[in-house]
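Might I ask for a little of your time on a matter of protein folding? The record follows directly beneath this note:
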Amino acid sequence: MALHNVSFDIERGSITSIIGPNGAGKTTLFNVVSGIYPPDGGEVIYEGKDITGNPPYKICFMGITRTFQNLQVFENMSVLENVMVGYHALTSSEFVSCMVHSFKASREEKEAREKAREVLNSLNLIGRENHLGSSLPFGDQKRLELARALVCHPRVILLDEPVAGLNISETDEMSDLILKQKESGITIVLVEHDMNLVMKISDMIVVLNYGEKIAEGPPEEIRDNKDVAAAYLGTMDS
């Protein structure tokens, strides 16, 4: 069972990190919240509403977006087009309208381009709009995924290992960008193995092990928790 009786609350405008060993159920949790996996039981409550089992596009429209553990960049699309895809949830033009370039569809496409450029500028990616997404260095592709998650003005972002594979300077830059989103009022839920980052920027930490929650609390409390140490080290105190 990937997840069992996992329950916790997330405070609006906070950074909550989900940590645990490989296979603990962290990404599965994100997949359930974002609508990729329908849960066998339990509820996902968002702003007082039960959103359990809604498809990903509806979850996105409600204000929850995400990035992925493995990069999900559209390799044959430009950087700008990659970000515009993230804005699609806020558009309403139908397929035929887009095909014939109706006034409404053209207006929404223009708006999507403008919003995409704004986000790219805020993440220091402006000037690369016409490059293929696959041509960017790995660290820039990580920021590109963040840009796509930000462009539709979410209230909650699920970040799945945003600094995995980054060097020290890139990690510091991503850390600053995450804190910047928090300062703008966005709620951040973070899955990450970089414990220095987790302890530095988290307001609360939830620890999973074998699909169950074994601890929850502020960083200083989690740092001294013997159950958490045992889960990571694979040992138990006598």
In short: Residues 103-122 form the longest helix (20 residues). The chain has ten helices and eight strands. The chain has one domain: 15-233.
